[in-house]
Design goal:
heterodimer, A: 850 residues, mainly alpha, two-stranded parallel sheet, B: four-stranded antiparallel sheet, 9 helices
Chain lengths: 850, 246
């Protein structure tokens, strides 16, 4: 007798099993298995890299920004609500109020002038600033102090707190405008979850198809899929959760804020999960695959609009429109499902009713979506094929002539123009993102055309956005077809740079459109903006390379889930770095612009070098390139050195001599960076670290140690002679002298009878020791790995000169050239240290003596 | 043509491939056999430079498979087990792309691809997007791409999987022709009868190591006369399991 057939699992059992599966996937990605040995393959192919720290840092920064943004939004809404509650008196923050309230009347007008300056100076928009100034003076002249009152809200909210919530009189005062933001966020999250970043709606995923082979009812699978949005919803935890948490904390929910925020975010995730199940089933059932792809592209664009609307509202100074829009809406508009969690901020029976309503709606919504989807797939789930289709038949005769671009570049163009999602992402999304900015901020075009620098910066901003969405994801776009690039007799980095050509052109196209618009509106800006535009075009090229490097290094091509292939932190890091380039456009001096450009170029080179190291191991789940010193190590060390100097200078700042503070800060920063760098290189596995950085002399060196030391001293003396000649020239030639005097002096004033020991210790001992370690020991070594000695010497000398004041740069450049050349000969760090020491001794000595 | 010495690939404690020694001469058709998980695909991926061996070395025409992987690609054509292609490219565009990546002109690509396409009966499908191809058609397309630049060595991972019997026969004939023109062929396959018909020498991998290598006659001499390849395979690859009905 055959065994009875086992019962199929119940719906809840299926949900439990699939949920457990999702949890296991999540934990396998992040939790190291006990006893996992080095080289052992993990759950995904992503190898642990040092870049993980940077990505975690960027992710934490993103989360903090979400909290800060939500806090600032609530504070601005509260200030606006407070003002509107008593419109006849102007509300002033605490410091402004006491500026005029705490003084006798005779002094009040003078103090009021200062108040007006304080109030209007932070306002960038000139029209708004003028309006504020007029309002303040009008009120003061008409009613004096009685025309003002002190705000009960803190002026600058550092952290969410009960103090920044305003609900006097009307408990719904803040609920209304917040509801609008919540609705936009929920819309953005839902559309993003449905349209996704790389999931192709026109195809049933292999995992879903596999689940349908089990003897379980379809409703169970659809319900489980809807519930999986709790884990797969990209915006749920980084964006929705902080928003609700801040709102609940500020409204006084106390310790319950976090669990309530978890519940609210989960609620929104479930709503979007149900929507996704419904839409993806319906689209596949009733539309052709081509139209499914188009609809997905359209939904993705809409999600960008909704996202931007919410972010623009959160960060905008002008939140009054949210009150105006929502003031006359009927109460039922605030009972829409995505808004229900916000009623928890009101408290009392309303909150309880809203919570019950939300739970009931979530259950009904999921039931409806699942039931509808199940009915649609009674005839089977669609599978196979794709959105592209063409009629089969005899091959058309080949077109004559040559394409402008072939190979990888042509393939990339095909991807952009044929893939609806990529096309929308490339062309529609930037238009929406920036178009919305103009719509929300009508005077933005006027601001952009307010000066040549603004024009160039706007062009760079648009271009870097297209690079973030295009060049950053260049490697991930290859998907499962990456193997084709590996079969070609070309280096993968070379192929990636061929792809990059297309993205550079797209970036230039958008920059060109912005420039054309700005120049059309303000033709008088064409000529003055040309130098800045040249800088921008160069910057676009450099940052395209940086985008490719950062994005490719943050890509896991073996990741089965498309939306996880590129780490979001990489894209965020790129946008952070590219925003720093704007500083070079606004920097007043040519020297600073040059420094920024060269450092950007160095960063691009460092990323290219790292990419070249890592790409051969891209498809290997465990192997990594052999650890070596790279240019990126030099950049990080130099950056850390300068930042720590500032930190330690602040720390040690006391009433003692300035030179002592400088020396302490310099030495402390140098010791920290040197120790950390050596430790990091050792931990990463660089063989014979001390020898690699030149701290230990090679035993097989051709020259003896004294000769090597002499070589360094000789280089320093030679550079010192050049410095003396340069100093003489500066002194003798009047325009050079004037120029040097205009730039900041590098040396302190020496008393005729005293030797500033601090500066001698700093200049002759500390600076050579630590600077040579960083710029020759690490940076030069990193450069030397990829370029010949001549180029490495030139590049390291150039970078070294650029981090010095412009007046000192020429002789410093010569010194760095000679020091690097001497280091190349000996491989011992003592050589360039001796060169640097002797050079500084000559320069300081000549400054003292003459 | 192909020399593998002490090749090994470890993932932590797990050895996917260990101490593989093999030589394949010019113009030979060599089969790599083994049960699932024996290390065949790992070995082929090491030869293609996708993975770096943790021990030993592999050289093709004197070029190291990892260190000189770029130069190697001029000489090697590769057919993966489950080829994927770009969604947004048609079949003929993929062939053009593959040819241009090997430095061929459009005229060369056309001239070389036409007979291959006709042979593999792909002609009508080339106007369609590769995403709409069946698995077998994708295999055929990938084979055209692998042969386009007239490689000296063909590395084929399960070339017949997904092909119908007619297509398999066509493929076999094509491979024999390539071999007659001097192309060395290294293929992995589960179709033992195909291997018996086509390949001169073969190696059977088991648990990452070579369990047996040689011509069919040599293997028979070692294992017992008149045994079929299938029986030899079972005896070598899974001696603890009963062979079952043939």
């Amino acid at each position: 007798m055959s065994e009875p057939r086992p019962h199929a699992p119940s719906t809840w059992r299926v949900i439990w099993l699939i949920g457990k599966l999702s949890w296991m996937r999540l934990t396998n990605r992040w939790v190291r298995r006990r006893g996992a040995k080095p080289g052992e393959r993990g759950a995904t192919a992503r190898k642990p890299t040092a870049g993980r720290l940077v990505i975690v840092f960027a992710s934490v920064l993103f989360a903090l920004q979400a909290v800060a943004g939500s806090t600032v939004l609530i504070q601005r809404l509260a200030v606006t609500a407070e003002q509107r509650a008593e419109p006849e008196r102007v509300v002033l923050n605490e410091s402004s109020w006491w500026l005029i309230a705490g003084v006798p009347e005779a002094e009040r007008e003078q103090r009021f002038e200062q108040l007006v300056r304080n109030e209007t100076l932070p306002i960038i928009d000139t029209t708004e600033s003028e309006q504020r100034r007029l309002l303040l003076w009008r009120t003061f002249r008409a009613r004096g102090l009685d025309g003002f009152r002190e705000s009960r809200l803190p002026a600058v909210p550092l952290w969410p707190s009960r103090q920044i919530w305003y609900s006097d009189g009307d408990p719904l005062a803040l609920l209304r405008p917040l509801a609008l933001v919540a609705l936009l966020l929920a819309l953005a999250q839902s559309l993003q979850h449905v349209a996704g970043s790389d999931d192709d709606l026109s195809r049933v995923s292999a995992s879903l198809e596999w689940l349908f082979t089990f003897p379980v009812p379809g409703r169970a699978l659809f319900l489980a899929r809807a519930c999986s949005a709790l884990f797969t919803g990209q915006l749920v935890w980084p964006l929705l959760f902080p928003f609700y948490a801040v709102a609940f904390v500020c409204s006084g929910c106390g310790l319950a804020s976090v669990p309530l925020a978890v519940g609210a975010a989960a609620y929104q995730a479930l709503l979007s999960g149900g929507l996704r199940v419904l839409l993806e089933t319906a689209l596949r059932r009733y539309l052709s695959l081509l139209w499914v792809a188009r609809v997905q592209a359209a939904l993705l664009s809409l999600s960008v609009v909704a996202m931007l609307g919410s972010i623009a509202t959160a960060y905008s100074r002008h939140v009054g429109w949210t009150f105006d829009w929502t003031l006359h809406l009927p109460i039922w508009a605030f009972l829409l499902p995505p808004v229900l969690p916000l009623w928890l901020t009101v408290g009392g029976p309303c909150a309880a009713a809203a919570a019950a309503g939300a739970l009931a709606f979530a259950a009904l919504w999921l039931a409806l979506c699942v039931w509808t989807a199940e009915r649609m797939v009674r005839a089977g789930i669609t599978s196979g094929g794709g959105p592209q289709s063409a009629r089969r038949g005899a091959l058309e005769p080949e077109a004559r002539g040559h394409r402008l671009w072939g190979g990888v570049a042509y393939k990339e163009l095909c991807a952009i123009f044929r893939d609806a999602r990529l096309r929308a992402q490339t062309f529609v999304t930037p238009v929406l993102v920036f178009g919305m900015q103009f719509w929300l901020n009508p005077q933005l075009l006027g601001d952009i055309t307010g000066g040549p620098r603004h024009v160039a910066t706007a062009a760079f901003a648009v271009a870097s956005f297209t690079l973030a969405t295009g060049a950053c994801t260049s490697l991930a776009m290859e998907g499962a077809s990456l193997w084709m690039l590996y079969t070609a007799p070309q280096r993968l980095e070379s192929l990636l740079f061929q792809k990059l050509r297309v993205w550079i052109c797209v970036a230039y196209l958008f920059a060109g459109v912005v420039l054309a618009l700005a120049w059309w509106r303000a033709p008088h800006l064409i000529l003055p903006s040309l130098p800045y535009v040249a800088l921008t075009l160069l910057g676009i090229f450099l940052y395209a390379v940086i985008a490719l490097g950062i994005g490719s290094l943050g890509t896991d091509p073996l990741e089965p889930e498309p939306r996880r292939r590129v780490s979001v932190g990489s894209v965020y890091l790129f946008m952070l770095l590219s925003s720093l380039f704007a500083y070079s456009i606004y920097a007043p001096s040519l020297w600073t612009k040059l420094v920024q450009l060269v450092l950007s170029a160095l960063l691009a080179f460092a990323l290219w070098q790292k990419l070249r190291d890592h790409l051969p191991y891209l498809l290997d789940p465990t192997e990594a390139p052999p650890p070596q010193i790279g240019v990126s190590d030099g950049i990080i060390a130099a950056l850390g050195f300068f930042v720590l100097q500032g930190v330690f200078a602040f720390w040690f700042n006391d009433s003692g001599p300035e030179g002592r503070t400088l020396l302490l800060a310099f030495v402390s920063a140098g010791v920290c960076v040197t120790s950390f760098a050596l430790f990091a290189l050792y931990r990463s596995g660089v063989p014979r670290v001390l020898r690699a950085v030149g701290l230990v002399r090679a035993s097989e060196a051709r020259q003896g140690r004294w000769l090597q030391l002499g070589l360094g001293l000789g280089a320093g003396l030679g550079a010192g002679a050049v410095a003396l000649a340069y100093g003489l020239l500066l002194h003798r030639v009047s325009w050079l002298r004037d120029w040097a005097e205009r730039e900041s002096t590098v040396l302190p004033d020496f008393d005729s009878g005293s030797v500033p020991g601090w500066f001698v210790a700093l200049g002759v001992f500390a600076a050579p020791l630590f600077e040579e370690f960083i710029f020759r020991g690490i940076l030069y070594r990193g450069l030397r790995r990829s370029v010949d000695a001549r180029r490495a010497v030139l590049a390291s000398a150039l970078v070294f000169a650029l981090v010095h004041p412009v007046v000192a740069a020429p002789p410093v450049f010569v010194m760095a050239l000679l020091a690097a050349a001497a280091y190349e000969r000996t491989g011992w760090l003592v050589t360039p240290i001796a060169a640097h020491m002797s050079y500084n001794a000559i320069v300081l000595g000549s400054a003292y003596l003459f | 043509m192909l020399v593998i010495e002490g090749l090994g690939k470890r993932y932590g404690d797990f050895s996917a491939v260990r101490d593989v020694n093999l030589e394949v001469g010019e113009g030979e058709m060599f089969a790599l056999l083994g049960p699932n998980g024996a290390g065949k695909t790992t070995t082929l991926r090491i030869l293609m430079g996708f993975l770096r061996a943790t021990a030993g070395r592999a050289r093709i025409a004197g070029l190291d498979c990892f260190e000189q992987r770029v130069e190697l690609k001029h000489l090697v054509g590769y057919l993966p087990d489950d080829p994927s292609f770009y969604d947004y490219l048609r079949g003929r565009e993929i062939i053009e792309f593959s040819g241009s990546m090997h430095g061929l002109s459009r005229e060369q690509i056309q001239a070389r691809s036409r007979p291959l396409v006709e042979r593999l009966e792909l002609g009508e499908a080339l106007n369609d997007y590769a995403v709409n191809y069946s698995r077998g058609m994708k295999k055929k397309l990938a084979l055209v791409c692998a042969l386009l630049h007239e490689p000296r060595l063909l590395i084929l991972d399960e070339p017949s999987s997904g092909l119908d019997p007619l297509a398999t026969r066509g493929l076999n004939a094509l491979l024999l022709e390539c071999q007659q023109r001097g192309t060395t062929i290294l293929l992995s396959s589960h179709l033992l009868d195909q291997v018996e018909r086509l390949c001169g020498r073969m190696a059977i991998l088991a648990h990452g190591s070579i369990a047996a290598v040689g011509t069919l006659e040599e293997l028979r001499r070692e294992r017992g006369a008149n045994q079929s390849l299938e029986e030899i395979f079972f005896a070598v690859a899974a001696p603890e399991r009963p062979a079952g009905p043939s």
